[in-house]
Design goal:
The protein has 223 residues and is mainly alpha-helical. It folds into two domains: 86 residues, no CATH class; 92 residues, no CATH class. It is 38% helix and 9% strand. It has a two-stranded parallel ribbon with strand order 1-2. α3 runs parallel beside α9.
């Protein structure tokens, strides 16, 4: 999750029927998404968190568990749309921005086998995310800089070609990569999903588009 950052991989269990947004106040809560942690974590979640922790630790990652933190908006918003009844347990993981794409990719590789155990692995972020350019574009009447679509197209092309090496080196290999991501936290979840999918997975875009002038919201599934 792009706004859940830590020095170590950090996981926290969110019980079904109790999705909680860390950055939402009470006025933003909606039916079926109460801001409470009163419900007891279901047995499948109790099994799920150790499974995630074991998978990470088994690949040499240090894991810290945080039982208090709720979901950040990067996870809360898509889950709200996908599961409006909040009827699934969730184990969100932090990102380690300072460790870069290679680390995020290896985290995904460590988690990949869990998909065969019935867990759904999701990465939530943006293909481009430069809020300073958003402010500039908004004040200038809504002009989208050319690099936004250009970088999104570059990512799409290299995902389809399964060019993992180029994707991991996007800051040097791509046009506008560094400008698209002044910090990497909003792109790192893509690399985790890519690592979890495995080298033979075929990516498919289920949505491609730009929001708020500069935020490329492209979404992919891996089959």
């Amino acid at each position: 999750m792009p706004n859940f950052k830590d020095c170590e991989t950090c996981g926290n269990p969110i019980p079904a029927q109790s999705f909680t947004c860390r950055f939402c106040n009470a006025s933003q809560s909606v039916e079926n998404f109460p801001k409470t942690r009163e419900r007891v974590i279901r047995s499948n979640l109790e099994a799920g968190l150790p499974t995630v922790v074991d998978a990470l630790e088994g690949h040499g990652f240090a894991v810290e568990q945080d039982a208090q933190r709720g979901l950040d908006h990067g996870a809360w918003m898509p889950l709200r749309q996908m599961f409006p009844s909040a009827d699934i347990p969730v184990v969100p993981l932090s990102v380690q921005t300072h460790l870069g794409p290679g680390h995020a990719y290896r985290v995904g590789q460590a988690l990949g086998a869990l998909a065969q155990q019935g867990l759904v692995l999701m990465g939530s972020g943006n293909i481009t995310h430069n809020l300073r350019d958003y402010q500039t574009a908004r004040m200038a009447g809504g002009q989208t800089p050319g690099y936004v679509q250009g970088f999104a197209d570059w990512v799409h092309h290299h995902l389809v070609d399964k060019d993992v090496a180029a994707l991991l080196d996007y800051r040097q290999a791509s046009p506008g990569g560094s400008r698209a991501h002044p910090s990497e936290d909003h792109l790192l979840p893509l690399f985790t999903a890519l690592g979890a999918a495995g080298p033979n997975a075929q990516p498919a875009a289920f949505y491609r588009g730009i929001s708020d002038y500069v935020i490329a919201m492209d979404g992919y599934t891996f089959h």
